[in-house]
Amino acid sequence: MMREKRYCSIDGCDRPAHGRGLCGKHYQKARAYDRLPNDLREVRETCLLPGCNAPHEANGLCNAHYKTQRRYNLTPEQTEKLIVGICDLCGAKRDESKRSFHVDHDHNCCPGPNSCGKCVRGILCSTCNTGLGMFKDDPELLHAAIRYLAQ
């Protein structure tokens, strides 16, 4: 006996149903937001990061931003700062500066592309992040630059 193929119960979705009458994507949203299938239409469809119109995938973030959160083991507070966009160094805000924001971590702790999360120093705007990188994260070199500018 052949089973009838079921489709997702969300209006307009033509993906095959897996659990609770939902496709995989809508089932994940239902679990993440602890909502019933009928309430899923209210769930945000795009990434939480301002200016990012990519589709929501996990934890309210698009795939690229979710990978950033996982790559650096960001806490919810750090992810919130990345979403809001406030630089920990200069205080620039996303809407004022039109800058992109980056996760700053100690490369001596985790030299590769990923981070343990303990060495994340903060969220920096692109200008501050580039500036620290140019000084090779060396406090002595930064002090020398301050002395030079103070002359």
At the first level of CATH, the class of the largest domain is Alpha Beta
Spans where pLDDT lies below 50 across 5 or more residues: none
Query: How much helicity do the residues have?
Result: 25-40%
| Biggest sheet: strand arrangement | 1-2
The main pleated sheet reads as: 2 strands, antiparallel
What's the structural domain tally?
2
Radius of gyration: 21 Å
Number of strands: 2
CATH topology type of the largest domain: His-Me finger endonuclease fold
CATH architecture descriptor of the largest domain: 3-Layer(aba) Sandwich
SSE order, one letter for each helix or strand: HHHHEEHH
How widely separated are the two ends?
Answer: 87 Å
Overall form: elongated
The number of helices is 6
Average pLDDT reading: 79
What percent strand? 5-15%
Structural class: mainly alpha
Explained architecture:
The chain has 151 residues and is mostly helical. The chain folds into two domains: 1-43, no CATH class; 73-150, His-Me finger endonuclease fold (3-Layer(aba) Sandwich). It is 35% helix and 7% strand. It has six helices and two strands; from the N terminus they run ααααββαα. It has a two-stranded antiparallel sheet. The chain is elongated and about 80 Å long. The N and C termini lie far apart (87 Å).
In short:
By secondary structure, this protein is mostly helical.
Protein topology:
Layout: H1 24-33, H2 63-71, H3 76-84, H4 94-97, E1 101-105, E2 120-125, H5 126-134, H6 139-150
Antiparallel strand pairs: 1-2
